[in-house]
Design a protein that fits this description.
two-stranded antiparallel sheet; Carboxylesterase type B domain-containing protein; 2 domains; AB_hydrolase_fold; CarbesteraseB
Length: 306
Protein backbone atom coordinates (compact mmCIF):
# COMPACT_ATOMS: atom_id res chain seq x y z
CA UNK A 1 0.00 0.00 0.00
CA UNK A 2 2.19 2.88 -1.16
CA UNK A 3 1.44 6.17 0.58
CA UNK A 4 2.23 9.27 -1.44
CA UNK A 5 2.42 12.20 0.94
CA UNK A 6 3.06 15.94 0.91
CA UNK A 7 2.67 18.28 3.91
CA UNK A 8 -0.93 19.04 2.91
CA UNK A 9 -1.98 16.01 0.85
CA UNK A 10 -2.12 12.31 1.56
CA UNK A 11 -2.94 9.79 -1.12
CA UNK A 12 -3.21 6.05 -0.51
CA UNK A 13 -3.34 4.01 -3.69
CA UNK A 14 -4.23 0.33 -3.78
CA UNK A 15 -3.01 -0.85 -7.18
CA UNK A 16 -3.69 -4.20 -8.76
CA UNK A 17 -2.20 -6.27 -11.54
CA UNK A 18 -4.14 -9.44 -10.79
CA UNK A 19 -6.75 -10.40 -8.20
CA UNK A 20 -4.82 -8.90 -5.30
CA UNK A 21 -4.73 -5.26 -4.22
CA UNK A 22 -1.37 -5.37 -2.44
CA UNK A 23 -2.79 -7.90 -0.02
CA UNK A 24 -6.41 -6.81 -0.43
CA UNK A 25 -8.41 -9.41 -2.32
CA UNK A 26 -10.72 -7.82 -4.85
CA UNK A 27 -13.70 -8.99 -6.84
CA UNK A 28 -12.77 -6.51 -9.60
CA UNK A 29 -9.21 -7.23 -10.82
CA UNK A 30 -7.47 -4.43 -12.67
CA UNK A 31 -9.05 -1.57 -10.73
CA UNK A 32 -7.50 0.81 -8.23
CA UNK A 33 -8.84 2.24 -4.99
CA UNK A 34 -7.63 5.73 -4.16
CA UNK A 35 -7.82 7.27 -0.71
CA UNK A 36 -7.47 11.06 -0.65
CA UNK A 37 -7.68 13.39 2.33
CA UNK A 38 -8.05 17.14 2.85
CA UNK A 39 -6.70 19.23 -0.05
CA UNK A 40 -6.13 16.01 -1.96
CA UNK A 41 -9.68 14.92 -1.16
CA UNK A 42 -10.84 18.21 -2.64
CA UNK A 43 -9.67 16.97 -6.03
CA UNK A 44 -11.86 13.86 -5.97
CA UNK A 45 -15.07 15.51 -7.31
CA UNK A 46 -13.11 16.83 -10.30
CA UNK A 47 -11.38 13.52 -10.90
CA UNK A 48 -14.69 11.68 -10.76
CA UNK A 49 -16.11 13.92 -13.45
CA UNK A 50 -12.97 14.23 -15.56
CA UNK A 51 -12.25 10.51 -15.77
CA UNK A 52 -15.76 9.10 -16.12
CA UNK A 53 -14.87 7.28 -19.35
CA UNK A 54 -11.81 5.52 -17.91
CA UNK A 55 -12.31 2.06 -16.41
CA UNK A 56 -9.55 2.61 -13.83
CA UNK A 57 -11.47 5.44 -12.22
CA UNK A 58 -14.92 3.89 -12.29
CA UNK A 59 -15.02 1.97 -9.07
CA UNK A 60 -13.30 2.80 -5.83
CA UNK A 61 -12.96 6.25 -4.29
CA UNK A 62 -12.42 7.13 -0.65
CA UNK A 63 -12.70 10.88 -0.06
CA UNK A 64 -11.94 12.23 3.41
CA UNK A 65 -12.95 15.86 3.93
CA UNK A 66 -13.69 16.76 0.29
CA UNK A 67 -13.81 20.52 -0.31
CA UNK A 68 -14.92 21.70 -3.77
CA UNK A 69 -14.64 25.35 -2.73
CA UNK A 70 -10.86 25.07 -2.99
CA UNK A 71 -10.15 27.33 -5.93
CA UNK A 72 -8.01 30.27 -6.99
CA UNK A 73 -9.26 33.83 -7.37
CA UNK A 74 -6.11 34.73 -9.30
CA UNK A 75 -7.54 34.19 -12.77
CA UNK A 76 -4.69 36.17 -14.35
CA UNK A 77 -2.09 33.91 -12.66
CA UNK A 78 -0.32 37.03 -11.44
CA UNK A 79 1.24 35.21 -8.48
CA UNK A 80 3.00 32.78 -10.82
CA UNK A 81 4.13 35.65 -13.05
CA UNK A 82 5.48 37.52 -10.03
CA UNK A 83 7.41 34.47 -8.90
CA UNK A 84 8.86 34.00 -12.36
CA UNK A 85 9.88 37.64 -12.66
CA UNK A 86 11.71 37.45 -9.35
CA UNK A 87 14.07 34.89 -10.86
CA UNK A 88 14.36 36.45 -14.30
CA UNK A 89 12.03 33.95 -15.96
CA UNK A 90 10.37 35.32 -19.09
CA UNK A 91 6.69 34.63 -19.72
CA UNK A 92 7.22 32.24 -22.63
CA UNK A 93 9.57 30.06 -20.60
CA UNK A 94 8.33 30.64 -17.06
CA UNK A 95 7.70 27.02 -16.13
CA UNK A 96 10.92 25.55 -17.53
CA UNK A 97 12.91 28.43 -16.09
CA UNK A 98 11.42 28.07 -12.61
CA UNK A 99 12.11 24.35 -12.62
CA UNK A 100 15.80 25.22 -12.61
CA UNK A 101 15.48 27.47 -9.55
CA UNK A 102 16.57 25.76 -6.28
CA UNK A 103 13.43 25.13 -4.24
CA UNK A 104 14.89 26.78 -1.14
CA UNK A 105 15.34 30.00 -3.10
CA UNK A 106 11.73 29.81 -4.21
CA UNK A 107 10.55 29.22 -0.65
CA UNK A 108 12.60 32.16 0.61
CA UNK A 109 11.06 34.49 -1.95
CA UNK A 110 7.51 33.31 -1.21
CA UNK A 111 8.04 33.84 2.52
CA UNK A 112 9.34 37.35 1.91
CA UNK A 113 6.61 38.27 -0.58
CA UNK A 114 3.87 37.14 1.76
CA UNK A 115 0.95 37.99 -0.53
CA UNK A 116 1.27 35.39 -3.29
CA UNK A 117 -1.32 32.61 -3.46
CA UNK A 118 -1.43 29.39 -5.47
CA UNK A 119 -4.56 27.30 -5.74
CA UNK A 120 -6.71 25.27 -8.10
CA UNK A 121 -8.09 26.99 -11.20
CA UNK A 122 -11.20 26.06 -13.17
CA UNK A 123 -9.85 24.46 -16.35
CA UNK A 124 -12.85 22.22 -17.20
CA UNK A 125 -10.52 19.21 -17.06
CA UNK A 126 -9.57 18.75 -13.41
CA UNK A 127 -11.66 21.54 -11.87
CA UNK A 128 -15.13 22.21 -13.26
CA UNK A 129 -17.67 25.01 -13.18
CA UNK A 130 -20.70 22.74 -13.52
CA UNK A 131 -20.47 19.81 -11.09
CA UNK A 132 -24.23 19.42 -10.66
CA UNK A 133 -24.91 19.48 -14.40
CA UNK A 134 -22.17 16.95 -15.11
CA UNK A 135 -23.51 14.63 -12.44
CA UNK A 136 -27.10 14.79 -13.70
CA UNK A 137 -25.88 14.27 -17.29
CA UNK A 138 -24.04 11.11 -16.25
CA UNK A 139 -20.60 12.63 -16.76
CA UNK A 140 -19.28 11.19 -13.52
CA UNK A 141 -17.35 8.01 -12.72
CA UNK A 142 -19.68 5.10 -12.02
CA UNK A 143 -19.18 3.11 -8.86
CA UNK A 144 -19.24 3.31 -5.05
CA UNK A 145 -17.34 5.75 -2.86
CA UNK A 146 -16.66 6.45 0.80
CA UNK A 147 -17.18 10.08 1.84
CA UNK A 148 -16.80 11.42 5.35
CA UNK A 149 -15.50 14.00 7.78
CA UNK A 150 -14.78 14.45 11.48
CA UNK A 151 -16.98 15.73 14.30
CA UNK A 152 -14.94 18.86 14.92
CA UNK A 153 -14.14 19.98 11.38
CA UNK A 154 -15.89 23.26 12.26
CA UNK A 155 -12.85 24.11 14.42
CA UNK A 156 -10.47 23.92 11.44
CA UNK A 157 -8.04 26.81 11.09
CA UNK A 158 -9.67 28.97 13.74
CA UNK A 159 -8.63 30.44 17.07
CA UNK A 160 -12.16 30.63 18.42
CA UNK A 161 -11.96 29.06 21.92
CA UNK A 162 -15.08 26.91 21.65
CA UNK A 163 -14.94 23.43 23.14
CA UNK A 164 -16.25 20.49 21.09
CA UNK A 165 -19.96 20.00 21.72
CA UNK A 166 -21.07 17.34 24.18
CA UNK A 167 -24.19 16.83 22.10
CA UNK A 168 -24.58 13.97 19.68
CA UNK A 169 -25.36 16.58 17.02
CA UNK A 170 -22.47 17.72 14.84
CA UNK A 171 -22.13 21.38 13.77
CA UNK A 172 -22.23 21.67 9.99
CA UNK A 173 -19.24 23.49 8.56
CA UNK A 174 -18.83 25.12 5.17
CA UNK A 175 -15.20 24.07 4.71
CA UNK A 176 -15.51 20.28 4.71
CA UNK A 177 -18.82 19.08 6.15
CA UNK A 178 -21.29 20.72 3.79
CA UNK A 179 -19.22 20.03 0.64
CA UNK A 180 -19.15 16.34 1.66
CA UNK A 181 -22.90 16.46 2.26
CA UNK A 182 -23.62 18.07 -1.11
CA UNK A 183 -21.29 15.78 -3.05
CA UNK A 184 -23.10 12.81 -1.52
CA UNK A 185 -26.47 14.35 -2.42
CA UNK A 186 -25.39 14.71 -6.06
CA UNK A 187 -24.25 11.09 -6.08
CA UNK A 188 -27.60 10.02 -4.62
CA UNK A 189 -29.47 11.75 -7.44
CA UNK A 190 -27.22 10.02 -9.97
CA UNK A 191 -27.88 6.63 -8.36
CA UNK A 192 -24.30 6.15 -7.18
CA UNK A 193 -23.75 4.24 -3.95
CA UNK A 194 -22.00 6.17 -1.18
CA UNK A 195 -20.86 5.03 2.24
CA UNK A 196 -21.04 7.97 4.68
CA UNK A 197 -19.11 8.21 7.93
CA UNK A 198 -18.55 10.62 10.80
CA UNK A 199 -15.42 10.18 12.90
CA UNK A 200 -15.87 11.22 16.54
CA UNK A 201 -12.91 9.68 18.34
CA UNK A 202 -11.28 11.91 20.97
CA UNK A 203 -7.86 10.46 21.75
CA UNK A 204 -5.23 12.64 23.41
CA UNK A 205 -2.26 10.83 21.88
CA UNK A 206 -3.54 11.95 18.46
CA UNK A 207 -5.09 15.36 19.16
CA UNK A 208 -3.80 16.80 22.46
CA UNK A 209 -5.19 19.93 24.04
CA UNK A 210 -8.88 19.11 23.88
CA UNK A 211 -9.22 19.51 20.12
CA UNK A 212 -11.36 16.38 19.87
CA UNK A 213 -12.02 14.84 16.46
CA UNK A 214 -10.22 17.62 14.63
CA UNK A 215 -9.39 17.74 10.92
CA UNK A 216 -7.47 14.58 9.83
CA UNK A 217 -7.75 13.00 13.30
CA UNK A 218 -9.02 9.71 11.85
CA UNK A 219 -5.98 9.06 9.66
CA UNK A 220 -3.84 7.42 12.39
CA UNK A 221 -6.76 5.08 13.09
CA UNK A 222 -7.12 4.13 9.42
CA UNK A 223 -3.39 3.52 9.02
CA UNK A 224 -2.90 1.94 12.44
CA UNK A 225 -0.24 4.48 13.47
CA UNK A 226 -2.10 6.04 16.40
CA UNK A 227 0.38 4.88 19.04
CA UNK A 228 3.70 5.99 17.55
CA UNK A 229 3.92 9.66 18.54
CA UNK A 230 2.50 10.68 21.91
CA UNK A 231 2.11 7.60 24.05
CA UNK A 232 0.30 4.30 24.06
CA UNK A 233 -3.25 3.96 22.78
CA UNK A 234 -6.18 2.85 24.88
CA UNK A 235 -7.94 -0.46 24.40
CA UNK A 236 -10.94 1.42 22.98
CA UNK A 237 -8.68 3.29 20.55
CA UNK A 238 -7.25 -0.01 19.32
CA UNK A 239 -10.77 -1.35 18.80
CA UNK A 240 -11.88 1.69 16.81
CA UNK A 241 -8.77 1.45 14.63
CA UNK A 242 -9.32 -2.25 13.99
CA UNK A 243 -12.95 -1.70 12.99
CA UNK A 244 -12.09 1.22 10.69
CA UNK A 245 -9.40 -0.80 8.96
CA UNK A 246 -11.81 -3.70 8.57
CA UNK A 247 -14.44 -1.41 7.02
CA UNK A 248 -12.04 0.23 4.59
CA UNK A 249 -10.67 -3.17 3.62
CA UNK A 250 -14.20 -4.53 3.15
CA UNK A 251 -14.91 -1.66 0.75
CA UNK A 252 -11.80 -2.37 -1.30
CA UNK A 253 -12.49 -6.10 -1.39
CA UNK A 254 -16.17 -5.76 -2.30
CA UNK A 255 -17.21 -2.15 -2.96
CA UNK A 256 -20.85 -2.96 -3.69
CA UNK A 257 -21.66 -4.69 -0.40
CA UNK A 258 -18.50 -5.19 1.68
CA UNK A 259 -19.16 -2.48 4.31
CA UNK A 260 -22.83 -3.52 4.63
CA UNK A 261 -21.75 -7.00 5.69
CA UNK A 262 -19.94 -5.36 8.61
CA UNK A 263 -22.86 -3.21 9.74
CA UNK A 264 -22.32 -0.12 7.61
CA UNK A 265 -25.26 0.51 5.27
CA UNK A 266 -24.86 2.83 2.29
CA UNK A 267 -26.78 6.10 2.46
CA UNK A 268 -30.19 5.92 0.71
CA UNK A 269 -30.43 7.01 -2.91
CA UNK A 270 -32.90 9.71 -3.87
CA UNK A 271 -33.15 13.45 -4.32
CA UNK A 272 -31.12 16.30 -2.90
CA UNK A 273 -33.42 16.36 0.12
CA UNK A 274 -32.98 12.66 0.97
CA UNK A 275 -31.76 12.24 4.56
CA UNK A 276 -28.23 10.87 4.52
CA UNK A 277 -27.32 8.06 6.90
CA UNK A 278 -24.21 6.11 7.71
CA UNK A 279 -22.02 5.40 10.72
CA UNK A 280 -20.43 7.35 13.54
CA UNK A 281 -17.08 5.94 14.65
CA UNK A 282 -15.57 6.32 18.13
CA UNK A 283 -18.31 8.39 19.79
CA UNK A 284 -18.26 8.26 23.61
CA UNK A 285 -17.07 4.72 24.10
CA UNK A 286 -19.07 3.29 21.20
CA UNK A 287 -16.94 1.84 18.42
CA UNK A 288 -19.61 2.07 15.72
CA UNK A 289 -23.19 3.33 15.73
CA UNK A 290 -25.73 4.39 13.14
CA UNK A 291 -25.76 8.09 12.31
CA UNK A 292 -28.05 10.52 10.49
CA UNK A 293 -27.12 13.85 8.90
CA UNK A 294 -30.73 15.13 9.10
CA UNK A 295 -29.62 18.25 11.01
CA UNK A 296 -27.42 19.22 8.07
CA UNK A 297 -30.28 19.36 5.56
CA UNK A 298 -31.13 22.92 6.58
CA UNK A 299 -27.62 23.94 7.61
CA UNK A 300 -26.15 23.03 4.21
CA UNK A 301 -28.93 24.36 1.97
CA UNK A 302 -26.71 27.15 0.63
CA UNK A 303 -23.91 24.78 -0.32
CA UNK A 304 -22.61 25.20 -3.85
CA UNK A 305 -20.91 22.86 -6.27
CA UNK A 306 -17.63 24.68 -6.76
Amino acid sequence: MPLVSTPKSRILVFSTSDSQLNGFATTSPGLAATLRESSSGAKVPGLLRGSHRHRLHQELWIALHPDRKLRSSDTAHSSFTSLGSAFGCEKTEELECLRRVPFRDGQKYLNQAGNLTFNVVVDERTKFSDYAERTLDGKVAKGPAIIGSTRDEWNFNTNVPIRPSNSSDVPADSVFGCPAHYETALRNVAGLKTWRYMYSGNFTNIMPGGHGAHHSAELPLIFGTHDIARGNSTVFEDRVSDVMQDLWRAFVESPEDGPAKRGWAATPLGGLDETQTGVDLGFRGTVLRKFSWSAWEAACTNETTA
